[in-house]
Specification:
The protein is built from 11 helices and 7 strands. By secondary structure, the protein is α/β, with parallel strands linked by helices. It has a single domain, classed as P-loop containing nucleotide triphosphate hydrolases (Rossmann fold), CATH 3.40.50. Helix 3 links the parallel strand 2 and strand 3. Bound molecules: adenosine-5'-triphosphate and magnesium ion.
Length: 271
């Protein structure tokens, strides 16, 4: 039934898609670790989802894509949000940017699996930036993804606001089951955290709907500043603590994807 809902051809801004093979070289000293992806034809697909606005879906989507791009993966960001924030971010980038060659496209309708495969062919990593509004778009993203990452601000209000997101992921899992896929892996990451271990610890204990990653991204003005020039903290300030957090997050997500269970203490938070 849901597949029938998703039969439209995708529309995307063709002019904003760069050649996948046009990969920029790594700026000196950026990556500290270089995780290796599985050698399959299907791109590794990560969807950033949360019905709550402003939790950092777009920020983390763009930064994870930048990490993959700098890690020499052919990387595509699909902006599923009608606000088009990821596309705007991308449009602010200059031709001299180290992110040149990273592709960003806006998708206006939920994609069928066939359309998704066609659109993402040739890429190693696909990052899906879901809208705050829940519905077919978010569900289709969770059907297509290998893993969903739920950014959470470490506050009780934000954690309580997750129930509808989880319901949407449950309904995506029903579609996945019909397609012969296992349930989508659900990871959560604390973003915009202040240096307050008590709040972080109680947030940690409250996340029982996903596997909470052991990496926390803190509130840092560098994230917003980088966006003004279409850049990321990986490219504006590669040796910063902010950049280190993003590399750690990228590594943790890849590591989680290569483990079957939620028991990897190196990747997951220990509360
Ligand atoms: N770790 C961070 N430190 C500082 N600012 C951040 C951080 N993460 C996100 N922000 C800022 O928070 C605001 C909202 O972030 P973002 O647009 O990524 O959220 P979103 O979940 O995509 O929102 P929406 O649901 O509206 O699409 C932006 O101004 C962004 O620069
Ligand atoms: Mg957004």
């Amino acid at each position: 039934m849901h597949e029938a809902d998703l039969t439209h051809k995708p529309t995307f801004t063709q002019t904003n898609i760069c050649a996948a093979g046009d990969l920029a070289s790594n700026p000196e000293g950026v990556p500290r670790s270089r995780p290796v992806l599985n050698n399959t034809n299907k791109p590794l697909t990560v969807a950033l989802v949360n019905q709550k606005g402003g939790v950092g879906k777009t920020t983390l989507a763009y930064h994870l894509a930048a990490a993959a791009h700098l890690d020499r993966k052919r990387t595509l960001v699909l902006d599923l949000d009608s606000q088009g924030s990821a596309l705007d971010w991308f449009a602010a980038r200059t031709e001299k940017s180290p992110l040149y060659g990273m592709a960003v496209a806006k998708v206006d309708v939920p994609l069928t699996r066939a359309a998704f495969m066609q659109l993402t062919e040739g890429f190693d990593v696909v990052i899906l930036d879901a809208p705050a509004r829940l519905g077919n778009m978010t569900r289709a993203a969770a059907v297509a993804a290998d893993v969903v990452v739920i950014p959470l601000q470490p506050s009780p209000l934000d954690l309580w606001a997750c129930s509808d997101t989880i319901e949407t992921l449950d309904s995506a899992d029903e579609i996945r089951e019909q397609l012969g896929d296992s349930p989508v892996r659900r990871l959560a990451v604390l973003n915009r955290a202040q240096a307050n271990t008590k709040i972080a610890r109680s947030a940690c204990a409250a996340v029982d709907f996903a596997e909470l990653l052991g990496v926390t991204v803190h509130q840092r003005v560098a994230f917003a500043v980088a966006a003004t020039t279409g850049e990321t903290v990986l490219t504006t300030d590669p040796r910063s603590a902010a950049a280190a957090e993003i590399w750690d997050l990228y590594g943790a997500i890849l590591k989680a994807l290569t483990t079957d269970t939620a028991t990897d203490k190196e990747v997951l938070a220990t509360c």
